Amino acid sequence: MTTDLVIARTREELDAARGDGPVVLVPTMGALHDGHVQLLKHGRPLGETLVASIFVNPTQFAPGEDFEEYPRTFDADLERCAEAGVDLVFAPTVDTMYPTGPDTTVMVDPGPLGSVLEGAIRPTHFRGVLTVVAKLFGLVRPDVAVFGEKDYQQLVLIRQMAQALALGVDVQGCPTVREVDGLALSSRNAYLSPDEREQAPTLYRALRAGAAAANDGPDAVIAAARSVVDDIGLDLDYLALTDPDLGEPVPGQDARLLIAARVGKPRLIDNVGLTLGSGSA
Ligand code: AMP
Questions:
Q1: Is 42 designated active site?
Q2: What band does 29 get if pLDDT is binned at 50, 70 and 90?
Q3: For residue 186, how far is its CA from the centre of ligand 1 (angstroms)?
Q4: What burial letters (b/e) apply to 120-139, b meaning 16+ CB within 10 Å?
Q5: Which residue has the least CA distance to atom 17 on ligand 1?
């Protein structure tokens, strides 16, 4: 593949540039940071054409959420893509993605997992995410698509969708990239005031405390994480221990600890994997 970055805005431009070899897609909403770059680096050797999509998807934002304010840094994003070895940036307009308008489109129903955890707080979010990802899969027709574990429920739901709808895309996850103090990189960290930025690593501290108690079983994990949250007085949306597919955690097996909290106005999410001991369940 050439080293020159091609920018495609439409299906036709995409088709002309995508090549005939295996295609790897990394979907993003732009405002790229080192977390996105890691996904791109993970994807680079997995195919011939590496495609990054940049699209702030209106259907995954509810009215009153931050669709308008979401950071848009297209020129800097292109530089990051070029450095990471991207061949093709797909940056469609809303009209290209939603020809009949975002409010009248056919949408993907995420099923029961779409209404727990993040879905309980943002009831229409995953419907929008799965719809845009399904459309990106249809337009880009990737062999492999790479997503971050940072948005763990999203990763699980996209895997489920790819399988349930037989989309023929190999969905791969990448570990969360963090600041030195543990805060997960996120485009939304730009919203944090200096005071909030200082408080923000508490989410990861709570997750670490929970993971450190893993040998003692599920109840100990939640208690340890909760004590960190209570000490700081975090405004918690949820703290949940699940199995890797977001079902009930099983003592003695791998599990996921997930947290969401408001730090001032901004809302942050994070999660870690752990292996439970058999403790008292
Ligand atoms: P976004 O642009 O926020 O929609 O994210 C695009 C992709 O980057 C998603 O698959 C995210 O899970 C992933 N991502 C975001 N932040 C991180 C991070 N800190 N580490 C790894 N992946 C991330």
A1: no
A2: very high
A3: 7
A4: eebebbbbbbbbbbbbbbeb
A5: 35
* pLDDT tens, residue by residue, 58-90: 999 999 999 999 999 999 999 999 999 999 999
Tell me the residue length of the chain: 281
Cα of 60 vs centre of ligand 1, distance in Å, is: 15
Nearest-angstrom CA–CA distance, 41 and 19: 20
Angle, helix 218-232 to helix 202-212, in steps of 10 degrees: 150
Q: Which atom of ligand 1 is nearest to the CA of 31?
A: 2
- 172-223 pLDDT, tens digit per residue, is 999 999 999 999 999 999 999 999 999 999 999 999 999 999 999 999 999 9
Q: What is the DSSP letter of 178?
A: B
Span from the CA of 150 to the centroid of ligand 1 (angstroms): 6
